[in-house]
Amino acid sequence: MQKNMRGRAKKAGLPPGSLVHTGERKKGEVSISLIEYDASSLFESQLPGMDACFSFLDKQTVTWLNVDGLHDADLMSRIGSCFGLHPLVLEDVLSTDQRPKYEDFDDYLYIVVRMLRYDSDVMKVKAEQISVILSQKYVLTFQEGFAGDVFDSVRARLREDKGRIRKMGADYLAYTLLDTIVDNYFVILEQMGERIELLENELIANPNRKTLRMIHALRGDALFLRRTIWPLREVVNSFTRGDSPFITDATKVYLKDVYDHTIHAIDTLETYREMLAGMLDIYLSSMSNRLNEVMKVLTIIATIFMPLTFLAGVYGMNFEHMPELKWEWGYPAIWMIMIVIGLAMLAAFKRRKWL
Q: Is the pTM of this model over 0.85?
């Protein structure tokens, strides 16, 4: 959050539509991939820049242009000029802390979603902003480009002509990309479920400070996922209920399925959040019970030694005329009395089930 605020500070005082990248900078150059296809052919290439962008706008094929890396503002400006994108849209593309949203323009639709991945090195869920622009014949996707994407399966389906994707229009491609992102949410949720299951076992067997840190980390991930997935429900709902000419009725049926998947992911996430809240209560109860057990043992020990301390104090006063002071069997006798008192108290505690 602090990084995003620092990025926002770069734009202070600038006019609306100023192209300033506010996210973390990707290492290396911006990568631009192009896929053009129809039912009978597919062309795929890596573009060195956007100098020849107008050559494929008049074609009858579906065009998918994917931009991997957002730190080159000049390149983004050329892409915007090429496709006639509004400066405020380009500004939102470069501002990588956007909330998932859907905006309907005259010539295209603008969608912002977040692609999730689990970083096993730091054991945290991370998100990357994906901006999607859908028009009649093309789909543009803009990624921050840190650790690849989840679209390899879509590319494979296009290359191998699997399913109906090559026979449908650009709206079906946008649906497929959105569906792939949502399906990946379940991969992240499944990993979270496995971590919660392991944590439950540890919570029952041996709760400790590490367990508490893991619970707080998972609760943080759950809150992060909630902020990511909940707004997406409204985005997909706007897709299905909108009357945009860029989305056919045939594709709306599939978008309803994505909406159902989003609701399922939200329900699963809410279940996990309730489980984590319950686990935190169980941890606090376990720690309280453990403390009570320790205090009980210490109290029993103190209670047993109270009469023994009294006897030791009485016979440690060393008055000259104490009756037992010169008695030959005084020392072993007082030991015997103290042992009997201790054993009797232990027996009484066990009979009352305090031990």
A: no
